[in-house]
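Quick board copy: two proteins, each given as sequence then tokens.
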Amino acid sequence: MDEETDNSEKLHSPYTGRWVALVRGRVIAQGGTPEQALRASQSSRYKEKPEIIFMPIPFSLPPLIDKIKDTLPADQEIYLVGGAVRDLLTSRLSHDFDFALPSNGISIARKVANALGADFMPLDDERDTGRVVLTDQDGTRIYLDFATYRGANLAEDLRARDFTINAMAYNLRDNTIIDPMEGASDIRAKVIRACSPTSLSDDPVRILRAVRQAAAFGFRIEKNTRELMKQGADQVGSVSAERLRDEIFKMLNGPKADTSIRALEMLGVLSHLMPELLAMKGVEQSPPHVYDVWTHTLAVLAHLDQIISGLRVGYDAEKTNDMFTGLLGLRLGRYREQIARHFAAPLNVDRSHRSLLFFAALYHDVCKSETKTIDETGRIRFFDHDVKGAEVAAQRARAFNLSNDEIERLQAIIKHHMRIHSFAGRMEFDKQTPSRKAIYRFFRDSGRAGIDLILLGLADLRATRANELTIETWTAYLDVARILFENYWERPEEVVAPPRLLDGHELMKELKLTPGPLIGQLLEAIRENQAAGKIENREQALSFAREEIAKGPVAGEA
């Protein structure tokens, strides 16, 4: 029995994790807090004076919690609160730990940071909140937030939180749990329920958080809470762009991103969050597309998740009954570790590489509605939707305050996402593999985004053809992906980034040229022919340059 199953069964026992009232050793009432257990006992045994005790949950605390306890005075009142308690009860690994205490949040945070040799920052002077940031050897960061109570006491603090599953507190001193909102019961029932009728209007970003956590935990959102979410959808625009961005990127980094985005659309949130996406709804596409643009986009997210999962290190191919995923592993499985390293290098420490790729997937066809044309045969086309879509996505990225590196990567993915389909079409119908020069140009234009483009291309194909996808077409795409991966990771100096044989100054000196655009054109033509295997040394490079000059103006790229 694994730990998560074991803890689940312990949570399902009637009194585990609860406060109970005992009379002569017999449980007569229970509650989420000592006060609730006492009140429940008095309603039936008002003449009795019960003993109130906590029925412990035998879970293991992370060693970090013990280190924090050791740094604090023995009489310090302090509670682990919120999502970290939820994660403990469901055997999930958390990197965010929130602590609530009566006062001195910033000074306690500074004391813990000094003891742990970690970074410290005051987070909110008004709420007396300090943050401690620990960085692991692999670059993973753990956040410890210390805040004074939101209200007069712990009970008021918990009731002011978003959802019942996040409104529990763990007492670091006596290892008991305070659960006034019955969050543990909702965890057992797999339900997300607002703590109060004003929980969502108090902070509308919680609408996005409910959707994200429902997908992450496989929970359902309780009916009344869903209604509150719909009623508060128009308030999402009042939230800062950074907080909205963070929820969206966490959503895209988690499971069932397609389901989450669909839920936001159905709740009426997208029109206040990313309204440009709604233009894709109902936009028809010609075969081989089987869906309209919006449904296709959501399907791309689902297939992208499946493809990345199928190529992760340790993936058990025997667990899939999907023939296409099986072939994916057979053809591309040798690159699992390289793909893992690719995703382990984010462009921003606060957002994952994976979430940025999913953001690109969400926007890759965003301009199909405005570029739609119908030719004389009745075929629907979307000329330049990739180029225009890259700019629309960049505008949203800038509004979300993404970094310049992230925006550049996002634009590269969307602008070039059709190139994989061109390669695969020639492979399938003409039996023509990508030339060395074509491979060079692909990675020259896309850089590291080339790996993202390959994975997005595979997901795009599956979402285009759906059940009509043939093994022949899928195999052609996998062969193109394998060739591109092979050249990028196994033959980079031969094809992808051949070493420079001479620079502009040498070229001008040897050929007696003056500075100008011609120099850059010649150098690039030399590198292309290096990649094609036609130039191998400096002498050949100079000879090639002389021949190009003799022909007249250097021709532009095909």
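And the next:
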Amino acid sequence: MKDKEIEGLPQAGNQKAIDKKMRELMGPPPQEATEDEILESRGLKKPKIEEPAKVVVKDPVFVEVTSSKDLDILDDENVEEDSTTSEAVDDIVAKEADTVLESEDAEVAKAFLPSKKRIGAKLHKLADILWGNPTNRWRTIIIIFLFILMTIFVPQSRYFLLNTAGVRSSVSLTVLEESSQQPLKNIEVTINGQSSLTDGDGKATVKKVKLGKTTLRIKKRAYAELSKVITIGWGSNPIGNFNLKAVGTQYSFVVKDLLSGLPIDYAEAGVGEAISTADKNGKVLIATDPSNVQNIVITVNAKSYRTEKVSISVDSKAEQIVQMVPARKSVFISKRTGKYDLFKVDVDGKNEGLILKGTGSEQEGMALLSHPADEFTAYVSTRDNARNKDGFLLSTLLIINLSDNSTKSITQSESIKLIGWSGDRLVYMQIVAGASAFSEKRYRIMSYDYKTTDKRELAAGNYFNDTVLVGGVVYYANTGLTLDDGSSNFSKINVDGSGKQIVVNKLVWNIFRSTYEKMTLSVDQDWYDYKIGTTTTTKLAGQPAGLKSFTYFDSPDLKHSLWVEERDGKGVLLAYDTITKTDKALKTQSGLISTVRWLSNNTVVYRIHTSQETADYVLNLDGGEAKKIKDVTNTIGIDQGYY
């Protein structure tokens, strides 16, 4: 009887063959383990084969085996081995192989687990340690409570923890000169390795500073260095004022306005990087440490004023007076060379410069109108000697940049009248004469933006009786021969071409600007008052007595407006306060005819024109005497005559 084979394995009695076959099927075992060890780990024992071995045969034939060699005979005689043992061995080998493979797969899978899962597992394990049982839970609560107490009541611990977390603060302070208590500029302030310089107000802000106790250092040449321990908390940390004591040579200056004689309390004076600010009396103290020089140069600056440089001996102890003049220049035309040249000059007569040399083609009646706040001026003349097809001499409108003396030609026409500046726009009247006298576009009200070069037609007609510019609105009275509706009316339009509106739908002969806020209109045979900015008029009983029309010049900040009135044979320059709505007489002088140019919010140039002289003068609204600038050729500014 032949033994059964166990699914591809050799018979159990041939152990070497079994091991070989297992290695071929399963590969090398993961660890050195014998068959006895495997059986023992499963609670089984391998049957022992003893010599002489006795084998029980199911067939009633008894075979006696006297030695192990006789076992080979069993194969040929269908000797049946113990099937229970063989099946157990096969099962153990298969399960062990599965276990090894599963273990290897688990190790590989573990290596590729997402990092968050691994971190989560660690956190979960930590939570078990800190909170897993009542004892650990109370220990954790006590530790957290102590940590909070330490953070609240022990500043150094709190600062250490916040600094470690990357928290930073800022510190602000003001540095003053000790004796004058005026702010010092360009002073170096250092805190914990971070530095900043003070501004014109003596203020400095040091950023990205660590929290806690540290040292503040303030230093500047010619001043005693200041060092102080401070504590930096969370936030902005304003720490107040700090005084620096001058240890170098100290110089004293008083800065005043040339025209009014009043102190300029915001002026700055300095040498090199040592800069100080004037006090309310215009006094400035400067500390410096001059070496190997006989003179030092002090630079004085103030907004809207020309920069002044003052050279003094290093041994000088006397207080120096510095008089300042407006930074903007006066613009005028002079025929001193025989031609009409265009100049600019500082109001103290210094730094005169030629803008445009005359061509010899200029006729009298030239117009010059400077922008109230910017370095541009409008100039109308016949200097180009250009003529139309009928030989009529044309006027040219130029916009001149006073900063670099560059010019831009805007237009040419038989006649150009300047109406005024409004913001960035120049408003003017362009008139066509000669063969075009019957044209419906003979008169054109134009506006030009000197920054964008945008040019717009605001209104057109055969004739305009009057035109007045108030703020950003042009008021005009046409005679009916217009391109739009053919009717006579009094209208208004914004300088950018928007907001056109008819105010009075009747023929208006004259527009009188009787006050800053009111106009008087001559309408057919009647008279009306018109409040500027509204759309209604009030009819008067008759013609007002002493009716006059005034030209107003608004200051750059719009707080004042200048106008001129003749009183007792002399011209009077008045300033209208737009806030209090009151007038103040500034100057009474023979031949005072007009305002020429604003140089600042409180400084103005006006013109005198008599048989003895034609000259420009400068005056400060805050006081002081007017000073003559230059003799000039009289020109037209705003043309308010009949058109």
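Board note added afterward: The two ends are 145 Å apart (CA to CA).
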